[in-house]
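Researcher: Can you fold this with (2S)-amino(hydroxy)ethanoic acid in place?
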Amino acid sequence: MSELTVDGARLRSALETLAQFGATPSGGVSRTSFSPADSAARAWVLDRCEAAGLRVRTDGIGNMFVTVPGALDDARPVWTGSHIDSVPDGGRFDGALGSMAALEVACRLAESNVALRRPVEAVIFADEEGCYHHLLGSTALVRSYSPDELAKLEGRDGDRLVDALQGLGWDLEAASATAVPAGSVHAFVELHIEQGAVLEASSVDIGVVTSIVGMGGGRLEFEGRADHAGTTPMNLRRDPLRAAGELLTRLPEVTASISPTAVATCGIIGVEPGAANVVPSLARLQLDYRDVRRDLIEALEDALFEAANEAADRHDLQVRFTRDSITNPAPMDQRLQDLIESAATAQGRSTLRMPSGAGHDSQNMSRLAPTGMIFIPSTGGRSHSPAEHSTWADIEAGANVLLQTVLSLATE
Ligand code: HGY
Ligand code: MN
Ligand code: MN
């Protein structure tokens, strides 16, 4: 019997249809979790799965699970999946690839009537891109957010997560009862675009991920004094945005003082009251920082706060730092790395073992179950931009490696 393969045309059509939800004029997508575009995409996923005869359930924070039953129905399931939310004006493949490939794997297994011992579940995680908290949905599977913590989570626009959930008619009690016991999942595998240029530069088909970087984040607020922009001499101002600017120019130096792998980014700046002719009273910076070890991330947080305090002192300001919880760096399971590599090699694909500098739900999943990640090349290494691109041939190849890996896990 020939080896089971995905339906490449159906996978392509699913990715093209998904890209229409939140499509932007630049050819990318803006599909923030819990936005109207995200809700429409969820409804489409639900219809598509029901039409294929697959059962779908959604947990209290919006993670979706699509089930293909196995012979041992009470056996621990094999999970595969990713996310369908995007960054603002992001690409069509980040998360979408692993989500649509997981649904394709589920459909293919269901329609081929292959004898599975374990159930297979395609999982679509909520808010991976962290509009409200980085890796929100998968974090909620590792540990439920407390109602207090949920109430404090705010989105990029300053809106509250609880309001977004209630706006969709969701039950807040269920949103803080999402954790899954460690050991209740047999294994997790995620297919993703590389989002860097390593595979392309080395002409390799498949990346086998060895580890994923750890991520921290937080909101830094400098508070000064609003004044008239025309009448207040430069040396008498308490301008928080000038201190914020000084801090930002020091990011390369601060990260280098921690480790050669540390990175820090400010992708959102807010100023109050926000008028061209008013010296601001408040500057708010949303920071993202990462490194390969948790202790380095903690040291980086402290160094960033110290640099912020130095800038605040120079301008006679108050400074506040609200830290998000840290997502730990995570090694990928050794046996799953071997399984992925064997599946790829058996399909005639070249492989490379490599770390991931991007964050992924897999790093949370690795606390629940043995976890592995499959990368395919990203053209020019571009990602988090409408320029994100991978070839249909690479997409189909990656999906077939995913299918064989899931099949091995579900039949063992
Ligand atoms: O930000 C990240 O690394 C991921 O794309 N959420
Ligand atoms: Mn992303
Ligand atoms: Mn992603």
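Model: Folded with (2S)-amino(hydroxy)ethanoic acid in place. The radius of gyration is 22 Å.
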